Each structure stands twice: as structure tokens, then as C-alpha cells.
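Q: Trace C-alpha cell order:
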Amino acid sequence: MTQHIGIVACSAEGAALCYRTIATEGPALLGAYAHPEISLHSLPLADYVASLERGDLEGVAALMLASAEKLARTGADFLICPDNTIHAAFEFVAPRSPLPWLHIAEVVAAEARAKDYRRLAITGTKWLVDSDVYPEKLAAAGLDHCRPRRDERELIDRIIMDELVHGVFKPASTRAICDAIARFKVQEACDAVILGCTELPLVITAENSPLPVLDSTRLLARAALRRAVDTSRSN
């Protein structure tokens, strides 16, 4: 038996990509049509945005914990959250959580170390790039980072919140994000870019990005899949 994965969802597109990755990559480890048991709980994105706009991280944590409690009651063994931004509230979540979590930024930092990257560009919402979610975990792994300029932060945030979370994908917006990534490469000497919004991998890929990408959504999903399978094999 594999472990039961609980997904604390925030935005629909990112959570769907995470769920789909676990389900479609499970057969490679478990056999045809197989994947670990998965439960997903989602409160309205509007509730999270309201707390973020107030700067209320304890309010964000309360929402995450509400999902965590419900997932624990469904029988989940551990939790993941395919949303980078709300990990800013994780310090309020971890001590009160009914279940253990995989932290998305720790998963990304581990992959960056494995790939021998040194200096990473951070992309995501304005709340994410202004936070210490990634700088803290990257520093712990001995990695340097670069944040977008103010104009880039505003542009990428608008694309995420006005387009990507609603399933709107515009070629002009994709080009604008790629232009920012190109500047990270040329002017900031970054050797990879963190797609620190779980919707960004829907438009930015290894094929169109000027830098190698660290796809936080799929990396978290794969880490959860490995944990669910490896833990069961070790028991």
C-alpha cells in the first residue's frame, strides 16, 4: 500500500496540474493505471487573496489548516500545497498541523543543488517574490538568488492573477515573462529560473525559457509521489 497524499489546494490551475502530474506519472512507479490515493481540498481563492492583501499571514495559515484538518479526516498521511505564495504562512502552519508536509521551496532547492545550479531567479506573485519563502530555503542549501525588478514583479503578478489563475494564456504575456527571464540570464548571471507560481509551468517551459527551469509544481508532485511510494516500500 502506498501512502495517501493530501493536496491543500489554493488556485485551481496549479492544483489541477499537481494532481494530474501525480496521477499520470504514478504508473511509471506502480504499474499501469496506478497511482497513490489522493485527496484534494480547496477553499475559495478569494479567501486567500483577501488575507494576502491585508498582509494577514495568520489568516492564510488558518485557511491552510482548515484544509489540512479535513484532509487528515479523509485519511491522508501527509500534505502538500501546490501554491508557492501561501507558503509565506508556513511558520504558523507547521506547529499546528495534524499531518507532516513537504515544503515546496525545500523541494525546489534540493533539485537546484542536484543540478549544480548556483544563482537562481525567482518568479511568482508579488507576495511570493517579496517574501523570504525562497531566499530562506535557498540560503540554507548554499544557493544564491535574484528577485525581479519592481516593474517585472508588477508585470508578472498581473499576468498570474489576471490571466493564468483563470486559465487565460496569452502569447504576448508568455513573451513578456520570457523577456524577464532573459534579463536574469544576461544581466544577473542566473543559471536557472524558479517558476515560483504553480501556473507558470503552463506557459513557461524548458523549450521557450532562456534559462533552465525549476518547475515547482511538478517537482512537488514528483516528490510527493516518491514519498508515497518509497515510504510504503520501506515499511
Q: What stands out?
A: The chain has ten helices and seven strands. The mean pLDDT is 97. The radius of gyration is 17 Å.
